[in-house]
Amino acid sequence: MRQRDLGDILGGLLMIVIGLFAVWYAQRYAFGSPRQMGPGFFPVVLGWVLAGLGVLILLPALRRAGEPVKFELKPLIVIVSAVAIFGFTLRPLGLVLATMLTVALAAAADRNFSPLGRVVLPVVLAAMIWLVFRVGLGMNLPVWPRGF
Amino acid sequence: MEIASGLLLGLEVALNPTTLLYCFIGVFLGTLIGVLPGIGTLATISLLLPITYHIPPTAALVMLAGVWYGAQYGGSTASILLNLPGTPSSAVACLDGYPMTKKGRAGVALFMTTIASFVGSMLGLAALVMFTPAIADMALRFGPAEYFSMMLLGLIAASTLASGAPAKGLSMVVLGLLLGTVGTDVNTGVSRFHFGIPEMRDGIMLVALAMGLFGIAEVVGSVRRNPGAETKQKITLRSMLPTRADVTDSTLPMLRGTAIGSFFGALPGTGTSIAAFMAYAAEKRVARDPSRFGQGAIEGITAPEAANNAAAQTAFVPTLALGIPGCATMGLMLGALIIHGIQPGPLFIARQPEMFWGLVVSFAVGNILLVILNLPLIGLWISILRIPYRLLYPAILLFICVGVYSVRNNPFDLYVVAVLGVFGYVLSTLRFSAAALLLGFVLGPLMEENLRRALLLSRGDPMVFVERPISATLLACCAGLLIWSVFGAMRAGRRAPQPALAES
After folding, report:
1. For the purposes of burial, counting CB atoms within 10 Å of the CB of B244, is it exposed (0-12), middle (13-18) or buried (19 or more)?
2. Would you say B285 and B98 are in contact if contact means Cβ atoms under 8 Å apart?
3. B323 conformational bin, left if phi > 0, alpha if psi -120 to 50, beta if neither
4. Rounded Cα–Cα distance for residues B356 and B349 (Å)
5. Low-confidence ranges of chain B (pLDDT < 70)
């Protein structure tokens, strides 16, 4: 089998796609002239440069062995959705409940938690966050569900 | 005379209880995350960025800087005890630090690295005080063309010097510049790349970008690794006492390390890790018996530790004198200042003397605090090494969430962080440097503005960049760096496939 550096092939393609997208999308802004640059000038130039660099990353990777790409989907999904859940629930449910939900979800990314740890950790962290941000730094955050 | 009055002014600022408190918090957290191998300085400073909105700018910078140089102290602890570098710049300390532990001299190694760190920091700080005003004076004559060329050089150096793949580093810088164009264009008022989302008209928040790229991506990458480590080392205060030979053998190496570190720290793109490696290589070269290295030579830990700490101090020189950060961490510091409406540059010292001198004196105070934290309390840090990561990452995650929300009280920013977190994780699995991206992002708007201004002044003639001598020199350096790194990559590319073939 021919040797390929999959990581750099994907990376190069990603840069080409982003670069060309920027060039295409920035067409709607005036390009202007070097003397009087429009808002589109800088993004279009950068987009072309990025796409060019993408080609430079991609080409040598086609004829070279590379390290395998390790992508762990489950922790990524769990952690990212924990962040989204926090954004979703903070205003309606308040800091304490949103915090506990987020921690309980995030703990699912690790199999080594004991059942007790899964209950205790959210409570402890909710108290800690409340102390640091609400009491310590005096930030204006909703603490309890709306209507309480 | 000027320096004396400056230091006096700084003393007043640095000993103010609020500043002192944030200085302590900074160096404490710095040591903590320096000791812990799974958490980096960039991630920690990103995490603390939202807090800087709620405290005075000087205190904010004092705290962030404390994390930065405090981590240099703590980093060597894990290197010495576990052969696991706590920070990249303390990787060199493994080479001779861990052999010392195996010989039962861990206490001495920890003591001497703390002393070396202190010496390096204080002398590096002296270099900062001497060179920053001089460089700022010189920069007063710089026009937009010089600024543009200097930022270009900084970005190229930062993205090509440290990594083995220059094209990947450069692509991250360009992507960062591109992300920096999102939002309202200051010159024309046109809002770019907002995709019809009103929140995007303000641009991508630095806090959200830093949290996504470093916070989320790092948590996801480390969850399965679980670096909670075992160490049975008992370090008593008595075992830390060095012999007379340890001290005399370290004196000159520390000074050489400091000189090397101060130089490389101030250059863009080199930074603390390269400084430490250079200092180690230099010691090996001048040593009468190079074979001692790797088997617990005391110079092998004291010189690089002095170097990376000196470099951590002088890294502030380009940031404070020119407003141009040389690495991503300095980019975050600059970002913290811009959040407070302060744009560092050649006039920074003249306009904000209490801030500049307050920082200088607080760095000195912070280093004294670090010696106190690291010597008698070393047992505390060693026990912290035993905390498993699964107890830490939910707390880190919450810190990210609450911090991001608190900046604008808008849940939308959390969704931005989630998206950028996915993007950051993809970049890190493909081995792209998110640090280069961040640096590009911070410098992007400044670069665009200076480019426009330079070309406006020259009536659209691009020759302005090569007709002005300083700008031409800087651009020549850019070209040299690019050519050098292309050749380096080509040579590495020709050599690399062979071991891979041998394996299959």
Report:
1. exposed
2. no
3. left
4. 6
5. 1, 38, 162-164, 224-235, 237, 492-504
Containing H/E element for B192?
strand B191-192
Token pair of B289 as six digits = 């018996």
Using an 8 Å CB-CB cutoff, list chain B residues near A65.
496-497, 500-501
Q: How far apart are CA B317 and CA B329, in angstroms?
A: 13
Phi/psi at B211 (nearest 5 deg)?
A: -65, -45
The one-letter amino acid code at B416 reads V
Residue A147, pLDDT score:
62
Contact residues for B110 (Cβ-Cβ < 8 A; gap 6+): B76, B77, B80, B81, B235, B240, B374, B378
pTM summary value: 0.85
Which residues 84-143 of A are in CB contact (within 8 Å) with B?
A: 84, 86-88, 90-91, 95, 99, 102-103, 106-107, 109-110, 112-113, 121-122, 125, 128-129, 133, 137-141
Distance of alpha carbon A82 from alpha carbon B417, whole angstroms:
11
Q: How far apart are CA B128 and CA B321, in angstroms?
A: 10
Please give the C-alpha separations between residue A89 and each of A58, A120, B46, B399, in angstroms, as whole numbers: 42, 20, 23, 16
User: What are the tokens at A60?
Assistant: 């040598």
CA distance A147 to chain B (A): 19
Question: Average model confidence (pLDDT) for chain B?
Answer: 85
Distance separating alpha carbons of residues B72 and B191, to the nearest angstrom? 41
Question: Exposed/middle/buried for A27, CB within 10 Å: 0-12, 13-18, 19+?
Answer: exposed
Instruction: Identify the residue whose tokens are 């050599």.
Output: B495
Q: Where are the domains of chain B?
A: 2-226+238-491
- Chain B residues close to A133, C-beta within 8 Å: 402, 406
Interface test with A, best of B29, B51, B220, B433 (most A CBs within 10 A): B220
What is the per-residue pLDDT for B370? 92
d(CA A49, CA B172): 11
Interface touch A37/B452, C-beta < 8 Å: yes
Distance from CA of B12 to the nearest CA of A (A): 24
- Residues whose CB falls within 8 Å of the CB of residue B296, separated by 6 or more in sequence, listed in order: B96, B99, B100, B102, B103, B105
The ipTM estimated for the assembled molecules is: 0.89
pLDDT of residue B426: 93
Over chain A, what is the mean pLDDT? 85
pLDDT digits (tens, 9 = 90+) for B112-137: 999 999 999 999 999 999 989 888 88
